[in-house]
Amino acid sequence: MISKKYPNAIFTMDSAFYFHNLTDVIPSKINLAIERNSSRVKDEKINQVLTIKKLFEIGKMQMIVEGATINVYDKERMLIELIRNKNQIAFDYYKEIISNYRKIINDIDISKIEEYI
Fold it and tell me: CB under 8 Å, gap of 24 or more: what pairs does 7-10 form?
């Protein structure tokens, strides 16, 4: 429903970690990246992350979740976001996600990370 209502938004942070099976914690709010110049989301269930235009599309991919196609940042972009925001994330939650990244290290495209940085 969220993807239909906000088709240009991209799932990020807790929502993206959950969709990528990097955590089993269901987010209390939906985290959406919105281009900074877009109209704001007016929904209490959504935490919006305003992103500048040149960074907004980096790492965007589509994924099918429960039969719906959604925009979500890829695992490589989310690893960067995890490290960049680690001081704002509960330590146990951060540790869980990093541990799950270690399990899939062979599936991570290091060249994408370098390009994104």
Answer: 7/71, 8/34, 8/35, 8/38, 8/71, 9/33, 9/34, 9/41, 9/48, 9/71, 10/56, 10/60, 10/71, 10/72, 10/73
